[in-house]
């Protein structure tokens, strides 16, 4: 398939407000990326741009706003955790989204030198492999060193608001799972 050259392809002007609204129609989970800063302070930032990249090797991707301290700190070789929030952790999402709340119950734990938040739905302890600039964000591809899943219902972000699943499904449908996971039937 041939793509038009940059000179041939002139998209209509895309307004950031309208684009954000359109992006909002894609429901995502809500995570907090946690790390230890150079000064020893434990920090985190709320992220909804998190995805699996590869099972072999185990890789994930997070996208951080360039203006965040996390984007300024995390480099190839940096250790961090991705904390997947459950539906009862809306206060943590807001706290780490730049709206500090003294009443938010932030309970830090440290595992092998990597800070994470207690009580999340799942955790991925990662080492950054590649960092790429992309517009107003930084994309980090990281190797998953270890993970743990509690299986709690997730916190969802949809159309600018936090939502929850009323009835999470116990197992994916086999036809969907085989398409997503291919030759890994143990995953479905």
TrEMBL record:
Alphabetical keyword list: Oxidoreductase
Transmembrane regions listed in the UniProt entry: none
Organism: Trebonia kvetii
Any one biological process term the GO annotation gives: pyrimidine nucleobase catabolic process
Pfam family, one: Flavin_Reduct
Name recorded for this polypeptide: Flavin reductase
The Flavin reductase like domain, residue ranges: 23-164
InterPro entries: Flavin_Rdtase-like_dom, NADH-dep_flavin_reductase, Split_barrel_FMN-bd
Coiled coil regions, renumbered to chain: none
Record-linked SMART domains: Flavin_Reduct
Keyword Oxidoreductase applies: yes
Keyword Oxidoreductase: yes
MF-aspect GO terms: FMN binding; riboflavin reductase (NADPH) activity
Source species, domain of life: Bacteria
């Amino acid at each position: 398939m041939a793509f038009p050259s940059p000179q041939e392809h002139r998209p209509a002007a895309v307004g950031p407000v309208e684009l954000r609204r359109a992006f909002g129609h894609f429901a995502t989970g809500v995570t907090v990326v946690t790390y230890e800063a150079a000064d020893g302070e434990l920090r985190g930032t709320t992220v909804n741009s998190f995805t699996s990249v590869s099972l072999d090797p185990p890789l994930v991707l997070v996208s951080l706003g360039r203006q965040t301290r996390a984007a300024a700190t995390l480099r190839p070789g940096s250790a961090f955790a991705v904390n997947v929030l459950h539906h009862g952790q809306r206060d943590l999402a807001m706290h780490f989204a730049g709206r500090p709340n003294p009443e938010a119950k932030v309970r830090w734990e440290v595992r092998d030198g990597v800070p994470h938040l207690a009580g999340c739905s799942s955790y991925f302890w990662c080492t950054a492999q590649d960092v790429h600039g992309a517009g107003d964000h930084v994309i980090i591809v990281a190797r998953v060193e270890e993970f743990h899943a509690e299986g709690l219902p997730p916190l969802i972000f949809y159309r600018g608001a936090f939502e929850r699943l009323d009835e999470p499904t116990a197992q994916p449908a086999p036809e969907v799972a085989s398409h997503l996971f291919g030759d890994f039937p143990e995953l479905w």
